[in-house]
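Quick one: structure for this chain?
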Amino acid sequence: MSLSAPSFEFSLAGQKLTAHTGILELMDDLGRAMTVAPHMRMLGGGNPAAVPGLQSLVRERMGELMADGDAFERMLVSYDPPQGNPRFLRALAELLQRTYGWNIGPQNLAVTGGGQSAFFFLFNLLAGRFGGGRRKKILLPLAPEYIGYADQGLEPDLFVACRPVIEWPQGHDAKVFKYTIDFAAVERALVRGDIGAIAASRPTNPTGNVVTDAEVARLSALALAHGIPLILDNAYGTPFPDVMFVPAKPFWAPHVILTLSLSKLGLPGTRTGIVIAPEKIASAIASLTAVVGLANNNIGQQIVLPWIENGKILELGPKILRPFYAEKAAAAARWAREYFDPAGLDWALHATEGAFFHWLWLKHLRIPTRELYARLKARNVLTVPGEYFFFGLEEEWSHQHECLRMNFSREPEVVREGYRLIAEEAAKASA
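Got it. Here's what it folds into:
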C-alpha cells in the first residue's frame, strides 16, 4: 500500500510569505547563475564585486583571528546577546559619537541577520494592524524602491508609494535623468493619517539615486511633525560602505532609524545588518532577534571590530570601494552609448550617484520589461525587470514597464557583452 503525501494547509501569513515574489526570483536566479549556470552574464542581483583591496584586508583579518585561539573560538563557539556583541556595539556608538556628534550609545544599536531581516522587523513593528481596528502603512516617498521590501509585510498592502518628479540635469540629449521627491504627493499621503513610518534607501536601489541632504532634511521634518520615524536604508551609503559618487552627509536624529550593512562593504556572506534607532526600537529589534534566531552571526562583527575601533571602516569606501565602482560605472556608461545609440533605441540612464546599478529607461518598448527580462535570460543575460520596483503605487504608470536594472559590478567582459545583448533584444522589442 502506497502512502500519498499529506496536503498541508498554510496560514494566511504563511501563504503570503511563500508566494512567488520578485525577491525570491532574483535570489534564485543569482544562486543558479553562481552554481549551475556559470555561463550566465550576471547583471541581476545586488551582489558586490570581489574588490581586491578589500579582500586582502579581510584575508589579513581572518589570519589574525585564526592566530588568536581565544578570539577564534569566541567567534564560532559562543552566542552573542541578541542585540549584538557588546564590544562591537560600544565601539560603533563611540565612533559615530566622535565623528558625527550623534547623541547615541550602545542602547541605540542592534545587530540583525542582514539588512533584509532588519526591514522585516521594522516594517512589521511600525505598520500593519493595530488595536481598535486601525491599520498603518509604510510611506515610500520615491518610487521606484528596493524590490526586497515589497513582500515583507505580514499584512497585505503594507506600502503606499509616491511617483517621482523626473528631471534632466544636463538636458535630454545627455540621456541622463534623475528622480526627485514630489513633496506635494508625500504631504498628501501623510495627511491621510494612516502612515506608520517613512522609508527610503540612500543610495536608492534600483536607480543609484542619492536623495539629497535637503530632501532628507525635509523628510525628517515631515516625519517629526507627524510623530512617526524616518527610516533611511544606507546599505550602499554613508557612513559605510560609502559607495557614493556625489556628496551626501550621514544623517541621524532621535526620530530617525538608520540601517547599515556589511554586505556591500564586501561581506554579504556574514549576513550582518546594523540598526541605529531610538532605544525603544533597538530594544524591540533585539527581542525579535531572540525570538526568531536566538542571536546573530558573530563573524561579521568580529571581522570589522578593529576597523570600527580605530575608525578605519570609514576610510574603506572613499579609498577602496568608491574608486573601484566609479571606474566600473563609467566603463558601463560608455558601453551603453556604444551599443544603445546604434540600435536606434530611445533610451536614458538614471544619474549614477551611488551603488552598483544602471537603471535603464527604454521609452518605446512594445513589451513590458518582465518579458524583456525573460528574453534576455534565454540569451544568458540576467537583469531585473522594472515592474518589481514600483509596488505601493495606487494607479498604473506606463513608466514602470519601461525600466530595467543592471548591475555593472561584474567582470568587464561580462558587463560589456551583456549590454550588447540588451541593446539587441531591446531593439527587437521597440517600436
